[in-house]
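Worked problem 6 (solution included).
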Amino acid sequence: MTELMARTQEEWELKQWLVNRDGYATVESAVSGPGLANIYKYLRSKGEDTSAVDEDAEDVLQKQITEQAAKGDAMCNKALSMLMKIWAAECRSIALRYTIYQLVSLRLTNNSLNN
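Solution. The predicted structure is:
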């Protein structure tokens, strides 16, 4: 599991909320499986409860959030937006790590061939 790296104040608050609730905050807890439900519950805990979504089982909750976001629900759209921003940041981080790994591997391979 990869630690959730907050880039904004709101992501930092989400991270702290997850740590207080679960004892840890991982990328997975923000973007995989129950990620959308976790972000929604965090926003709801801040008193931003303007949504028509009821808290049910996480799979039902995620479906409701997505459906309400498509209907223009501001809080559900905010939850989806946060999820996508966190996911995009993690994808950039993975791409950077992979690129560096590939460059190092290529350099080591070239050095081995030249000796």
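Discussion: The mean pLDDT is 84.
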